[in-house]
Amino acid sequence: EELVYERHRHRFEFNNAFRDQLEDAGLVISGLSPDERLVEMVELPRDVHPWYVATQAHPEFKSRPTKPQPLFREFVRASIGQHEGVDRLQVTPMNLATD
Predict the structure, then answer these.
(1) Pairing state of beta strands 28-32 and 52-55?
(2) Is the pTM of this model over 0.70?
(3) Does 91 fall in a domain?
(4) CA of 28: how far to CAs of 38, 46, 59, 62, in Å?
(5) Counting beta carbons within 10 angstroms of the beta carbon of residue 78, is it exposed (0 to 12), middle (13 to 18) or buried (19 or more)?
């Protein structure tokens, strides 16, 4: 999806002064505020880490026992795959919003 709505409570912000340097080092900026000034979500490529996603949002507020928020669902799927030594990821964190 082009736009995703999540609850936030910001105490800290991503320092945009380091944005280019961090992207050059491999950090993926995968979520921005609508005005594109605030970084809301970052990831590491799978060749660096099996499943690394950091978000300013609180996905736990939208997660329910029978309908987990996609971020939690995919984290559990990746964890099971790591435990079993199998790559179970069918969805990458970067396209969670479309699932």
Answers:
(1) unpaired
(2) yes
(3) yes
(4) 14, 11, 19, 24
(5) buried
With respect to residue 5, please indicate whether it lies within any of the assigned structural domains: no
- What is the pLDDT at residue 5? 77
The predicted-structure confidence for 47-95, as pLDDT tens digits, reads as follows 898 889 999 988 888 888 889 888 888 888 888 887 777 655 554 555 5
In a domain, 7, yes or no: no
Per the listing, tokens 């970067």 go with 94
* Distance separating alpha carbons of residues 80 and 87, to the nearest angstrom: 9
User: What range does the domain containing 73 cover?
Assistant: 16-98
Number of domains in the chain: 1
H/E segment holding residue 70: helix 70-84
Angle at 62 between CA 3 and CA 97, to 5 degrees: 35
Has residue 74 been placed in a domain? Answer: yes
